[in-house]
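Module 6 notes. Inverse folding takes a fixed backbone as the condition and produces residue identities as the prediction. Think of it as a translation problem where the source language is geometry and the target language is the twenty amino acids. Below is one complete input and output pair. Work through it position by position during the lab.
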């Protein structure tokens, strides 16, 4: 052949990666693996083994133990025993272990890459150049955090023993995202890999033994979904960290509800890939290839919804189809392929079923004639057009090499379509106009936004979801907080009544309000609103007094005082039960719904104000509260009977809390993450949206303000259910809000039966987060019900806080609960 012939044919020569070292390693284990518990291989108590196969040829690779609940229990015990000494090691000592693991991974990187490709089907190019280097990077990066914990996270302690369950799409990478930060912060772990892809986790176990990691610090328990369930339901874990589908995440949220276990959930996605008319179209086409055909599209943050500006759509789609026809699909160990097989026949069937459903719903399909090998789980790169925003293939995660494409006309429509999903994991935005790209990045609801790039990950940047893509972050400093708790807080161990107890059935059912005082009150003395009542003989003739003007406290919704929907009222008595202090509105479900919709309407305007502006309003609230400080102190004293001095202190501390979060309103906006990107990765701390705040009875004013101030200071809109016992402090407080320039709907207050109002908030699909300071049973219900839309929860499990203590009633924890981190990646260079 002449050089000219080569140029015209440009055929690829075969470039197979050798699988011989991996085969030798598998053979050395007789292709049968036990569980790695307490630093040793242990046969599963069930005696059962699962088979793992190569999706490129569906041949069996090896057998791995199928753990049962008894095996999980042994692993938990080993991890618990190891925790005692591991958590006491110096940060430097833990850093040395993590560093040693990172070095071992680099030393054996090719073996890891080949095993990963054999087991998962991903191309060797990806496992070799992306997965394994990132794994090593996570251990190096977290070795650094272990070293720095004593200075950078001084006021925190490890969470304890952590159960970790991971999926099959990035087997070793997901392991590293979980194990590296957990160990760095002094925790010990039991990790279960996915049943399709256990092999690299087992090689990792050997590396732990190789670096003489103390026994029990890392336990690898292979098995199926039941083994996962045995982990998430085991009572002796202090935290569960899960990555996988939203459906399973929801089950886990319910299983762990009310247990006091910490939980982080990294779930599914349906991320938009937005191409504006001024984008560099050729780069954007390459971006699409990386977005949806990387790892066969089995990527939680895959750019699976292509949104193209209408006027460039025909040109862009033509370019994309041309590029699709050059993609090479083949054996995972062939170094020249772009795509390998999908992970297993069952995944192939799911993809195929969804594509057929799309066609039945009217989609048009394009699949390039790239040629597929026979005998494996190969699915061709696929493009679906003529789809609607409501089409199943547009809303559901397909988790395969299938792209759906739609058009938009204006940037506003792009944002609307981009956000038209229950997920919120990632987005990719393509435009040469920096203003447009950044404005869109800001408005898209997602944890990672890539500008003119896609699918970038790094240990220094947190990754995680908004909405039903889960909560918690992995990577970056923000990811470390998933593995620590404040040094002053013990692990909550709430005691719940048995499930058949009447309390379960009764919780959340509205109790009828007691509208009038049951026994006649003394006619002399303090009356309504602290006025003095006169005896009846004085009601005639000279000096007669008339009944006081009624001041029934109303609800505060959308900036207005509002009568309750149910038109019921409730009396509020003084602490000794002798005096009627006031009458409050008894709010119901409809009132909560109105309050949520008022908060939603206020959300964007408020969130987009500058921090300085929000600070000014918090200061103004403080100023107006200060002007009425004595009145509030008397009110608190008459309600609680705690004494006037203590009540005055409570008001002063409340004013100080407003100052604290006014100060933070422009000082918690985010950081620059030092990732490996040549460019800038910005971690923005964004508000969560609409937050329900259920306040405790203790320190009624201080606790309520300690919750409202950080939430609104960081740009959220809130629906407040104040203390049920002392609601008058809240209804007095809305008068302060009314005079403080706070926009309508930012704070809404609904008084009434706390449990039933809480239930409505927790059930509400348009509430993004709920903070509940109340009973253990209420905490259980809040966490359980919140699984429906995966709202973030912060609950107290019935443990009272000392709100006057700045370590408990204020600080970083409150700011973190008020925000979620969005990482925006902006490459630089020409
Ligand atoms: P999956 O939810 O079916 O399984 C994940 C893991 O959970 C497996 O180890 C499985 O054995 C275990 N499991 C299954 N049922 C369980 C139960 N009832 N209790 C406890 N554990 C249980 O998910 P998958 O199919 O392995 O992975 C694909 C999903 O993972 C996709 O939805 C993808 O978007 C998601 N994912 C998310 C991220 C992220 O960071 N957000 C990363 C990778 C994958």
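Target side of the pair, the amino acids:
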């Amino acid at each position: 052949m002449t050089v000219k012939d080569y140029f015209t044919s440009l055929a690829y020569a075969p470039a197979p990666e050798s699988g011989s070292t991996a085969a030798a390693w598998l053979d050395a284990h007789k292709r049968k693996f036990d569980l790695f518990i307490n630093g040793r291989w242990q046969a599963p108590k069930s005696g059962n083994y699962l088979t793992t196969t190569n999706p490129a040829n569906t041949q069996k690779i090896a057998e791995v133990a199928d753990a049962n609940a008894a095996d999980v229990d042994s692993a938990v015990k080993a991890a618990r025993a190891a925790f005692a000494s591991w958590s006491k090691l110096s940060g430097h000592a833990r850093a040395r272990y993590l560093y040693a693991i990172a070095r071992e991974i680099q030393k054996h990187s090719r073996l890891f890459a080949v095993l990963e490709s054999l087991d998962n089907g991903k191309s060797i190019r990806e496992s070799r150049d992306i997965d394994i280097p990132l794994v090593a990077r996570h251990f190096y990066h977290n070795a650094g955090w272990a070293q720095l914990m004593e200075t950078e996270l001084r006021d925190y302690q490890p969470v304890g023993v952590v159960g970790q369950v991971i999926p099959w799409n990035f087997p070793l990478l997901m392991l590293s995202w979980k194990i590296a930060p957990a160990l760095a912060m002094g925790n010990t772990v039991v990790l279960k890999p996915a049943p399709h892809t256990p092999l690299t986790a087992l090689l990792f176990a050997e590396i732990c033994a190789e670096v003489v990691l103390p026994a029990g610090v890392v336990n690898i328990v292979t098995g199926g979904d039941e083994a996962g369930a045995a982990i998430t339901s085991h009572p002796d874990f202090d935290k569960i960290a899960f990555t996988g589908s939203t459906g399973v995440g929801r089950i886990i949220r319910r299983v762990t509800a009310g247990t006091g276990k910490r939980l982080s959930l990294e779930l599914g996605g349906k991320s938009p890939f937005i191409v504006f008319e001024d984008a560099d179209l050729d780069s954007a086409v390459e971006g699409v290839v990386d977005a949806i055909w990387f790892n066969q599209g089995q990527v939680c943050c895959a750019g699976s919804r292509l949104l193209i500006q209408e006027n460039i759509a025909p040109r862009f789609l033509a370019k994309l189809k041309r590029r699709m026809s050059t993609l090479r699909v083949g054996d995972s160990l062939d170094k020249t392929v772009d795509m390998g097989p999908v992970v297993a026949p069952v995944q192939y069937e799911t993809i195929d079923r969804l594509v057929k459903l799309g066609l039945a719903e009217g989609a048009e399909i394009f699949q390039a004639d790239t040629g597929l090998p026979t005998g494996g789980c190969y699915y061709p790169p696929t493009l679906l057009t003529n789809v609607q925003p409501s089409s199943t293939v547009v809303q559901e995660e397909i988790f395969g090499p299938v792209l759906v494409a739609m058009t938009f006309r204006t940037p506003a429509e792009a944002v609307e379509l981009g956000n038209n999903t229950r997920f919120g994991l990632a987005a990719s935005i393509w435009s040469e106009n920096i203003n447009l790209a950044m404005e869109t990045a800001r408005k898209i609801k997602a944890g990672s936004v890539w500008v003119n790039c896609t699918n970038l990950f790094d240990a220094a940047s947190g990754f995680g979801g908004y909405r039903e893509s889960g909560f918690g972050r992995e990577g970056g400093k923000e990811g470390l907080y998933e593995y620590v708790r404040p040094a002053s807080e013990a692990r909550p161990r709430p005691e719940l009544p048995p499930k058949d107890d009447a309390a379960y059935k009764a919780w959340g059912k509205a109790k009828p309000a007691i509208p009038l005082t049951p026994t006649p009150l003394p006619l002399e003395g303090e009356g309504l609103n602290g006025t003095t009542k006169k005896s009846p003989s004085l009601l005639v003739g000279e000096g007669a007094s008339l009944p006081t003007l009624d001041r029934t406290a109303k609800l505060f919704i959308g900036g207005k005082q509002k009568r309750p929907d149910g038109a019921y009222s409730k009396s509020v008595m003084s602490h000794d039960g002798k005096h009627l202090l006031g009458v409050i509105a008894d709010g119901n479900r409809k009132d909560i719904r109105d309050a949520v919709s008022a908060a939603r309407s206020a959300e964007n305007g408020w969130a987009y104000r500058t921090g300085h502006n929000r600070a000014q309003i918090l200061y103004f609230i403080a100023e107006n509260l200060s002007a009425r400080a004595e009145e509030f102190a008397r009110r608190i004293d008459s309600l609680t009977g705690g004494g006037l001095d203590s009540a005055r202190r409570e008001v002063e501390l409340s004013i100080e809390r407003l100052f604290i979060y006014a100060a933070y309103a422009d000082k918690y906006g985010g950081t620059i993450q030092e990732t490996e990107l040549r460019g800038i990765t910005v971690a923005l701390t964004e508000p969560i949206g609409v937050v329900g705040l259920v306040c405790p009875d203790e320190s009624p004013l201080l606790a309520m303000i300690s919750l409202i101030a950080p939430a609104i200071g960081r740009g959220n809109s809130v629906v407040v259910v104040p203390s049920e016992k002392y609601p008058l402090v809240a209804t007095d407080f809305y008068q302060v809000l009314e005079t403080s320039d706070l926009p309508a709907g930012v704070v809404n207050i609904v008084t009434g039966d706390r449990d039933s109002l809480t239930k409505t908030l927790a059930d509400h699909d348009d509430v993004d987060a709920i903070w509940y300071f109340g009973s253990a049973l209420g905490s259980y219900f809040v966490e359980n019900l919140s699984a429906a839309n995966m709202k973030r929860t912060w609950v107290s499990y019935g443990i009272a806080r000392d709100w006057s203590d700045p370590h408990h009633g204020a600080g970083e924890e409150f700011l973190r609960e008020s925000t979620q981190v969005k990482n925006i990646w902006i490459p630089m260079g020409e």
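Reference fact for the lab report: The two ends are 38 Å apart (CA to CA).
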